[in-house]
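agent: user wants the full assembly modeled, not chains individually. Plan: 1) parse entity lines 2) check alphabet per entity 3) run joint structure prediction 4) return tokens. Steps 1-2 passed, two entities, 681 residues total. Proceeding.
--- entities ---
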Amino acid sequence: MSVRVGKTATAPAFPVAAHTALANQQLRANVARATNTIRSKRAIRVEEMPDWQALRQSASDIKSHTLAHLDHYLTEFERNCERAGGKVHWARDADEANTIAIDLIRHYGGTEVIKVKTMTSDEVQMNVALEAAGITPIETDLADMIVQMGHDDPSHIVVPALHKNRFEIAEIFRRTMNLPDLTATPEDLAAAARDYLRDRFLRVKIGISGANFAIAETGAICVVESEGNGRMCITMPEVLITLVGVEKVIPAFQDLEVFLQLLPRSATGERMNPYNSLWTGVTPGDGPRAFHVILLDNGRTAQLLDERERETLACIRCGACLNACPVYRETGGLAYGSIYSGPIGAILSPQLQNLEHSRSLPYASTLCGACYEVCPVKINIPETLIHLRGRIVREDQKTLSGIFSAENLAMQIAAKAFLNHRSYEAAQRLARMGQRIFERDGQLTNLPGMAGGWTKFRDLKPIPKSSFRDWWKAREKGSPQ
Amino acid sequence: MHYNTGYHGEAVPLVRRFVQTFRDAEVVCVPSASCVAMMREHYELMAERENDPAFLAEVRSLLPRVFEFSELLVNRLGLEDVGAHFADTVTYHPSCHSLRMLHVGDAPRKLLRAVCGLTLIELPNQEQCCGFGGTFAVKNADVSAAMLTAKDACVIETGANVVTALDNSCLMQIYGGLHRAGSAVRTMHLAEILASEAPR
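--- prediction returned ---
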């Protein structure tokens, strides 16, 4: 079995990719503008909810109960979905999911598919697999379409083309749709996309979707969206294939009451999504004649073992933590090297792959707590980041290069120095002496080693001649300095 | 520093040392919100993992006596006017851990408003992190500096001569950026402002 998450295996480490992203002023301006807009809309819609905290708690409770009994709810979902005429397939990893999808498409004689926005299909890199099998995937979500046409990667869980502004989008449309005179007004861009898609909605016989929720009690799937392209993809084709991460199951229809209040407000600052689609199996004369669900593990069930790690699986992919994150705000999503970016991506990507890739992501945070504050299902992201850092440090300390790394040595020395006042004061004296050669006009501006990361951008006041401890001791003796 | 960076094992002796040093104190006043947050959020968890009931009991007995500086003055002692005199313009940066973990709320502002001669100017986008984040500042120096630039721009926008906070780590970051940019805005811990007296 091989767990894969997007292109994480070949992605550069976060600090390297962030360095590149920070040099792109256009990208940073786009990200800042977009996240500011969504953040303020969200704040208004959350403010008006008197029971917001209670809703968050309910969502967290439902998710933690479901994840603790995931086997039960998944088999219940399978039973009820198949009773209603659907067919459930189980995929252990990315390759299995893609193989199942390709086999199904070939079985129904398809050469192209229309797709509703699904991050899970990006996780398993389904488009790449489909193209390799001679099948053309057509993204119909506006942002996903922009990403696909621009040969780009998604930079946001909810708004994958957030890093592009309308002028850049117009350029992509002009090129790929052969519309040299297209203007960059939102109306013209929407009209161009509508024209382009209409023909495909009518023509293509197979649709692929993700799922926001899979309901065990009824075997139903729920997808929420804003553009109506999803409604087209799940009703127009003859065959519908739905890819669902196993953590998306919820016990009962009534649980949607909680999630459908939290999700749109958190994701886009709307009270309700414009399109809320729910379907159960197949219905003669209405919608697809064949319906397949692929339940995807891809590293998820391994995360159930540890309670702290299990909590990450409660995520409903609203993206609120991305919009709230001051790191994401500066770098955008591409720097994370994973289709799951921002704070949730920083804990989800490495966990799915058992820390094999995305090892720099748990450090891509100041632990400021803004993500936890906005999370509608109360995932304690900062705590999980610290937990993962602990796992990484313990793993690294088992290797020679880890033991002798500058960071580990510095941490071991500091741990010893902090252990009693004599060694602490000795370290202070040593630093006070050592700093002299780096001091210019009363400032430290060019420190060596890891501290150079500090002085590359910032000045530092030297350690003063007399410490607080000296002052305290003198004061105790009754002779303040 | 150790715990947040992932050096969990190395942090335990430091917790034991802290408990040993302060076990008999009536009150422990800590002039750093992030240190208090570390104690409240993690000390019990760390002691539990050690499977040492005596250690855990000591941690549990000590923690309720630990106060962040402004918490101690306003919430515990009911003090707002400490008789300080500081004739200057000041802006206040609510550090992440004081804001989102300790929930100190308006305590520091109440203290500042009561200072004779002080003009408090609200900081725009104040709830946004300054980009320090402990070892983040050197491990992700570029991003940290970008976040700092945004914070310092807000500080300068206020026109205040002094920026204050409950964490010297954030102030070290904010100062580092301001000084490098040639700004004359000073950084002072809230305690330093409250300790200021009228010129005689």
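agent: reporting back. Chain A has a mean pLDDT of 95. The first helix of chain A runs from residue 14 to 22.
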